[in-house]
Specification:
single chain, mainly alpha, MetI-like fold, 12 helices
């Protein structure tokens, strides 16, 4: 709720509904955002319904059908539309199941990093003083380390695994939220509606939850969208290095690592997992750009 809205006495729910309607209208008029949303929906459907969509077991090996090319190339078979890998496993089934790992990691990382980062940013921006200084120094220290290297170090110490990867990436991504939310909160801190709420005797917790959090939510949502894409890339990188999910779990990064040694003879084993990563990340980024413009049209270039 802005100061002008508060002064006009417009109900919060009316303003919220009107704002959401206008944002959705702007989003629907953005072709790139719609393409990104369609890609995200396809990835989400594959992740949710992988057992129903994939026709074969992604880990089923057939050593008599190794490195079969895609079905449209001479030597390919229709039973394996995208071909097979060096163990005779169906690439299409493994890509579909790999979307589940990417979706779980992306959403979980945003939940962990967003919760920690938004909370810390709100507290630092509202309280200021010593609390702000401590949180700012912790943020600066973590930003001094390359996030990929820090995630690799955590996984190397704890051991590879899906939840280890999620924790490692989540605990290195919260600093991005702190910087954005802290700046937004400090800007809102001096606005008339915040001063009026404090003058009316509102507790700090109510001011943060009732007035500050809704106003920084748009920036946090947009940042969270881009963080999903970053988490997918980081998970794929860790799996490529052998520090991600176990080899028995289909992962786009793991498939890319398995196929790199066959680039000359079986290029499809690396090309299609790489395309899956690229398309998924592109879709999330396109949707994030559309959300940024829809939620805050002043940022439109």
């Amino acid at each position: 709720m802005t100061a002008a809205v508060a002064a006009a006495g417009v109900p919060d729910d009316v303003v919220s509904v009107t704002s959401r309607t206008a944002s959705l209208r702007r989003l629907r008029r953005d072709p790139a955002a719609l393409i990104g949303a369609a890609i995200v929906v396809v990835v989400a459907v594959c992740a949710l319904f992988a057992p129903l969509i994939a026709r074969v077991d992604p880990n089923a090996q057939n050593l008599t059908a190794t490195l079969l090319p895609p079905a449209w190339i001479a030597g390919g078979v229709h039973e394996h539309p995208l071909g097979t890998d060096n163990l005779g496993r169906d690439l299409l089934a493994r890509i579909i199941w790999g979307s589940r790992v990417s979706a779980i990691v992306g959403l979980s990382v945003v939940a962990i990093g967003g919760t920690i980062g938004v909370t810390a940013g709100l507290v630092a921006g509202y309280r200021r003083g010593r609390v702000d200084a401590v949180i700012a120094r912790i943020t600066d220290v973590q930003l001094a380390f390359p996030l990929v290297l820090l995630a690799v170090a955590i996984v190397a110490v704890v051991g590879p695994g899906l939840w280890t990867v999620i924790a490692a990436i989540g605990l290195t991504s919260w600093v991005q939220y702190v910087r954005v939310v802290r700046a937004e909160t400090m800007s809102l801190r001096e606005r008339e509606f915040i001063v009026a709420a404090e003058a009316a005797g509102a507790a700090p917790g109510r001011v943060v939850a009732r007035h500050l959090l809704p106003n920084v939510a748009s920036a946090a949502i947009v940042l969270g969208t881009f963080e999903i894409a970053r988490a997918i890339v980081l998970e794929s990188s860790l799996s490529f290095l052998g520090l991600g999910v176990p080899p028995t779990t289909p992962s786009w990064g793991g498939m890319l690592a398995d196929g790199r040694q066959y680039l000359d003879t079986a290029w499809w084993t690396a090309l299609f997992p790489g395309l899956a990563i690229m398309i998924a990340v592109m879709g999330v980024n396109l949707l994030g750009d559309g959300l940024r413009d829809a939620l805050d049209p002043e940022m439109r270039a």
